[in-house]
């Protein structure tokens, strides 16, 4: 399949004062994937300046061991990567675009690479796209245990060393890493654990703090959509409550059918799956810089609308922005996830990403005690932990212990171990609470603040110029 993945660039060139400034901002703000499940409607049209990437393009293959850290484990995994040498000049660095939670493709030489005479490498994260173990059931728990942040970092380090030696037999070329969202976090962790492979990292919306109960998601969205329309949070909350009341009145099956989610009728976790799907759809509009569209659609109803009117309005909002099959996708269906042992090679890997959340990173978006937009009845931390347990057999204690162990090796020692990482964050991004919140001389930080500044700079436009210029300066400094 060709042209499956869409990468977001933070600004259209027409918004900027000069072409050079446009290139700098759109490059430095980082690339972020719009998940495949969110591409069925108007959202993909509302967000400007998309670039399609050919995920079926010919690639290089690194044959990685299933387990870099245990030689007794037998088996390999093909990890795809792409190299663009068109801007490279002798002695120049190697820039790497970190793999994220979806299929990857080639990324060509751009303004940054030209400025630094750099080669450009794009790496596909193991267990996404076509970088899947060549076994009958690669997404069984037996094999998913080899999907981790550490294994991905080891893959990337090996690929970087291969490319450096191909360009210069000494292998002593400098490297630099870039990423946004989860790949922004892997960028930071990569620099932290492999400082001799890359000289620095620009992490855009990098979720470097693995938080088990991530109630901050709703807290940030609630505050963001309060501006400029202070009634917007209450409208969204009232829609959630309307659905809750329908379920309490025995009309849950009817409501699921209304949202084309009949697949969630009668399943063990169908109710919590359903409530996760509908609130994820609404809140993602803020995440991707489109809170105006969210609030505008909700405001079509009078403040005293009936429950049926609110449910219909929410359903139409989701259909418009994501298509009519959003809530019935496997990503929001624990039964489907549990049964899935193989997966499409395009788009975000639904089970792979849920495994990473349940087994290591969490970010479980449960309802906060105050200002909750999601269901406080169906989306408690116990409900979300049960999804992980049902799909992967991991108890709540297993999940908590895994998160604590991961943070002990990464987040808790970041200031002690890491240098030369710049964090870029954005004021309306619901993931910013999982990033850094301040900087140091060796770990600089820059927040872009504006009404509508979303994840990885979505909606930020020219407001991101200051932070992007600072990031460019850090790249130059750390490559010296």
Supply Rg.
22 Å
C-alpha end-to-end distance: 41 Å
Largest sheet, strands/sense/barrel: 8 strands, mixed
Name the helix and strand elements from N-terminus to C-terminus, one letter apiece: EHEHEEEEHEHHEHEHHHHHHHHHHHEEH
Strand content: 5-15%
Blueprint of the fold:
Blueprint: E1 5-8, H1 19-28, E2 32-33, H2 43-46, E3 50-53, E4 60-65, E5 76-84, E6 94-97, H3 111-116, E7 119-123, H4 141-144, H5 149-167, E8 175-180, H6 182-193, E9 201-204, H7 216-224, H8 232-248, H9 252-258, H10 270-287, H11 291-298, H12 307-322, H13 334-339, H14 350-361, H15 381-392, H16 396-409, H17 414-417, E10 421-426, E11 445-448, H18 465-479
Parallel strand pairs: 6-7, 6-8, 8-9, 9-10, 10-11
Antiparallel strand pairs: 1-2, 1-3, 4-5, 5-7
Explain this structure to me?
- With 480 residues, this protein is of the alpha/beta class.
- Helix content is 40%, strand content 11%.
- It has helices at 19-28, 43-46, 111-116, 141-144, 149-167, 182-193, 216-224, 232-248, 252-258, 270-287, 291-298, 307-322, 334-339, 350-361, 381-392, 396-409, 414-417, 465-479; strands at 5-8, 32-33, 50-53, 60-65, 76-84, 94-97, 119-123, 175-180, 201-204, 421-426, 445-448.
- The strands form two sheets. It has an eight-stranded mixed beta sheet with strand order 4-5-7-6-8-9-10-11, with helices on both faces.
- Helix 6 links the parallel strand 8 and strand 9 (201-204).
- Helix 8 crosses helix 11 (291-298), helix 8 crosses helix 12 and helix 14 packs across helix 16.
- The longest helix has 19 residues, at 149-167.
- The chain starts with a strand and ends with a helix.
- The model is unreliable at 1-32 (pLDDT under 50).
């Amino acid at each position: 399949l060709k042209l499956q993945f869409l990468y977001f660039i933070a600004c259209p060139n027409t918004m900027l004062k000069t072409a050079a400034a446009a290139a700098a901002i759109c490059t430095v703000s980082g690339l972020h994937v719009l998940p495949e499940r969110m591409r069925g409607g108007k959202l993909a049209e509302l967000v400007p300046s998309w670039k399609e990437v050919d995920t079926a393009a010919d690639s290089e293959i690194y044959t990685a061991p299933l387990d870099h850290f245990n030689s007794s484990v037998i088996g390999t995994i093909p990890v795809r990567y792409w190299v663009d040498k068109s801007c490279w000049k002798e002695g120049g660095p190697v820039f790497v675009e970190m793999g994220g939670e979806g299929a990857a493709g080639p990324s060509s030489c751009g303004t940054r690479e030209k400025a630094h005479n750099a080669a450009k490498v794009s790496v596909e994260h193991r267990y996404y796209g076509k970088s899947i173990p060549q076994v009958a059931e690669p997404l069984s728990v037996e094999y998913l245990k080899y999907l981790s942040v550490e294994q991905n970092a080891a893959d990337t380090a090996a690929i970087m060393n291969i490319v450096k030696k191909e360009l210069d037999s000494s292998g002593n070329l400098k490297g630099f890493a870039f990423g946004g969202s989860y790949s922004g976090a892997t960028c930071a962790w990569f620099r932290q654990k492999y400082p001799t492979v890359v000289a620095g990292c620009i992490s855009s919306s990098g979720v470097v703090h693995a938080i088990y109960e991530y109630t901050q998601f709703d807290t940030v969205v609630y505050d963001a959509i309060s501006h400029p329309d202070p009634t917007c949070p209450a409208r969204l909350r009232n829609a959630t409550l309307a659905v809750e009341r329908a379920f309490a009145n025995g009309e849950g099956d009817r409501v699921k059918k209304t949202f084309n989610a009949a697949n969630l009728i009668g399943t063990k976790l169908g109710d919590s799956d359903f409530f996760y799907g509908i609130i994820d759809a609404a809140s993602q509009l803020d995440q991707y810089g489109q809170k105006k569209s969210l609030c505008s659609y909700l405001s079509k109803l009078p403040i005293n609308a009936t429950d049926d009117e609110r449910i219909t309005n929410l359903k139409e909002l989701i259909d418009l922005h994501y298509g009519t099959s959003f809530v019935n996708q496997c990503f929001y269906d624990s039964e489907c996830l549990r049964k899935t042992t193989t997966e499409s090679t395009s788009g975000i890997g639904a089970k792979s990403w849920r495994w990473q959340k349940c087994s290591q990173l969490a970010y479980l978006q449960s309802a906060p005690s105050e200002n909750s937009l999601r269901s406080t009845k169906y989306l408690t931390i116990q409900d979300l932990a049960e999804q992980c347990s049902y799909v992967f057999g991991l108890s709540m204690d297993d999940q908590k212990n895994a998160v604590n162990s991961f943070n002990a090796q990464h987040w808790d020692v970041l200031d002690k171990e890491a240098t030369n990482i710049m964090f870029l964050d954005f004021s309306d991004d619901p993931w910013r609470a999982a990033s850094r919140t301040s900087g140091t001389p060796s770990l600089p930080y820059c927040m872009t603040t504006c009404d509508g500044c979303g994840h990885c700079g979505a909606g930020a436009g020219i407001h991101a110029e200051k932070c992007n210029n600072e990031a460019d300066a850090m790249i130059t400094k750390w490559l010296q």
